[in-house]
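In response to reviewer comment 3 from the previous cycle, which asked for concrete evidence that the modeling workflow produces usable outputs, we include below a single protein chain processed end to end. The sequence was submitted unchanged, and the resulting structure tokens are shown without manual editing.
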Amino acid sequence: MKSNKVKLIVIVVILVAALAVLFTIYSRQAADRNDLNDKLDRARILFTGLGAQKEALQDDLAQAQSSLNTSLAEFPRVVESIEYGDDLFEIAADCNVQITSLSGSVPADKKVGGVTYSVSSFGLTVSGTTENMLKFIYAIRTGDDFQLPWAADVKSVNMDAAKSTINLDIYGYKGT
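The workflow returned the following structure tokens.
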């Protein structure tokens, strides 16, 4: 009989241990499932919010693109003046002078014979040594350092010991 009792106790202990292991595994899986469901709920909420945000950003992009297109249509040639200004600053750096002020006009078309030029007027003040300011004026007149296909007509130069005020017209080729 004792051996039956021992067998029964061993079987009960094994069953209790198996149930404890199964309960632990089930509890962990239930906790993991709850965590995953919470994360899924947060992801759904975030996804919904991101979808609305994406639509709003697409609307903003469409409005910005429309505004850009309108601006480009209104000011298509102002970029030329900016590019001329970039060249002028590069030439100034090469000649060791500093441009302290630069103003330009909106380019206008000027037709000479069968050729149309884009003409922009610029006023600029440079500072540096007299020798370097003369090199700068010469570089503008000869056009050797121009990055773009343009030519300058120096209209006037007012020079003193430390600075020069230069007025010039820049001609860019427009085609026929």
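Residues 55 and 61 are 10 Å apart (CA to CA). We consider this sufficient to address the reviewer's concern, and the full set will be provided in the supplementary archive.
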